[in-house]
Amino acid sequence: MPATRSRARSPSRGASLDTAPGRPEIARLVAPNPGPMTLEGTNTYVVGQRPAHVIDPGPDDPSHIASVRAEAERRGGVGGILLTHSHGDHSAGVERLGGPVLWGDGGTEAGPFTVVPTPGHAEDHVCFVLDGTCFTGDLILGEGSTIVPPGGGSLIAYLDSLRRLEELDLELLCPGHGPFVTDPGAKISEYLAHRLERERKLVAALDAGERSRARLLDAAWDDVPAELRWAAAEAMQSHLEKLEAEGRLPSELRD
Q1: From the CB of residue 23, how many other CB atoms can be counted at a distance below 10 Å?
Q2: I need a surface site. Which of 30, 42, 88, 99 has the fewest CB within 10 A?
Q3: pLDDT digits (tens, 9 = 90+) for 40-55
Q4: Which H or E element spans position 102?
Q5: List of domains in the chain
Q6: pLDDT beyond 80 at 107
Q7: What pLDDT shows up at residue 5?
Q8: Which listed residue (56, 61, 89, 138) is catalytic?
Q9: CA distance 3 to 181
Q10: For residues 213 and 71, what is the distance between their CA atoms, to the nearest angstrom?
Q11: What is the pTM of this model?
Q12: 34 phi, psi to nearest 5 deg
């Protein structure tokens, strides 16, 4: 029988509120910042009660923060705020929400959560684990794949972070964007396979003598729609940086 999610209305602004499958102590509120990279918007989680903990308050949006605060107050108040990473769509609402930042602002404690360092998407990225549930930030999304930005991110570290989660006994993923993931093992395997397949196509094109970045993009990201080609180009650059770090990148690439 498929898992279902209950829906309620936030007592403050009528915002939609989800609870995790089989985990009513985990509430998800989606910020109103939809887009190609954020899907429906950034997920903010309010977890537990007396007090509650808030994971990733999201952007500095007054209505969203009001809904998060109201849900937290219904559960006994904000006992602490945790940030999976410092990107603004996850962290900018901290000051407006108020409350102690337990992780993500120089803190060393994370309340009842186990902190799992997961750099790659961002150097400061972590995941939080509680009773078989992992709050994954932008390491894993509920739909599609995440960006590993060139320069500020590291594909080598990102793949290592996925493998680190693969070793854990997880029952549920609560991603930074998109729906809950009820089969963590399958999703992590899918993410690893996806990245490695991109690399296989890219390396095959390089081995065949291709040196044009545009044509390499066509060869390895041929299924990406035109409006997301810029994102595919960033993903390819991260793969090229990985190959260079591994001594596998030809020196004569051209635009």
Answers
A1: 18
A2: 88
A3: 999 999 999 999 999 9
A4: strand 101-103
A5: 7-184 (3.60.15.10)
A6: no
A7: 31
A8: 89
A9: 10
A10: 48
A11: 0.91
A12: -65, 155
